[in-house]
Amino acid sequence: MLVRRGRDRFKDQSYFLFNLSQEQLSRLEFPLGDMDKKEVRERARQLGLNVAEKAESYEICFIPDNDYPRFIAKQLNGQGLKEGEIVNSAGKVLGTHPGYPAFTIGQRKGLNLGGLKEPHFVTHIDPVRNRITIGPKRELARQDCTVGQVNWSLEFSGPFHAEVQIRYRHRAVASMVTPLDGSRAKIEFDEPQISIAPGQSAVFYQDDCVVGGGWLE
């Protein structure tokens, strides 16, 4: 049993469902899969549901002010955000940051650094040393990566071609996926990809169906 992308590609949620088991899928229905947002709102109006007029939100639902660093600091009682170094790929210290949990791979905003000749982005996060490495966009690009805790919707005995999506708003790209021991897999992209962030999902598609996925290492 496979999950297929919804007709409304902008609202498609299949990326988040890769980890469902076959037993869970057997008990699910997706009545909105063949509808777009406009049709869903109209149907809600017909049923007298207040959600038909509800404004859309693109932020994290439980962080209404979108202040992610403040939320993290509050959850950790201030213990999780400590000042650390910002360095370049050569290890040169360029400045300081308020705490590594406030950053993600590919982030540009919030670095508060001047004097750089070109835009710089977060390329690596070292939680142990509380250090953030930054560099120009070209240093973000990677040709391959690995994922762990893979959940397979189909069985594959060897490498296979798939479209791989590494972020919710990322356009899936042609790749070669190789199953590895220990519920892991290697992904080789046809074209280098940027902002490959550990902890994000990498989902494998064939013919718009989810055939597997795991967590970026």
Automatic annotation (TrEMBL):
One of its GO terms (biological process) is tRNA wobble position uridine thiolation. Pfam families: tRNA_Me_trans (PF03054), tRNA_Me_trans_C (PF20258), tRNA_Me_trans_M (PF20259). SUPFAM superfamilies: Adenine nucleotide alpha hydrolases-like (SSF52402). GO terms for molecular function: ATP binding; sulfurtransferase activity; tRNA binding. Residues 143-215 form the tRNA-specific 2-thiouridylase MnmA-like C-terminal domain. InterPro entries: MnmA-like, MnmA-like_C, MnmA-like_central, MnmA-like_central_sf, Rossmann-like_a/b/a_fold. Keywords: ATP-binding, Disulfide bond, Nucleotide-binding, RNA-binding, Transferase, tRNA processing, tRNA-binding. CDD domains: MnmA_TRMU-like. Residues 71-135 form the tRNA-specific 2-thiouridylase MnmA-like central domain. PANTHER family: MITOCHONDRIAL TRNA-SPECIFIC 2-THIOURIDYLASE 1 (PTHR11933:SF5), TRNA 5-METHYLAMINOMETHYL-2-THIOURIDYLATE -METHYLTRANSFERASE (PTHR11933). This is tRNA-specific 2-thiouridylase MnmA. It comes from marine metagenome.
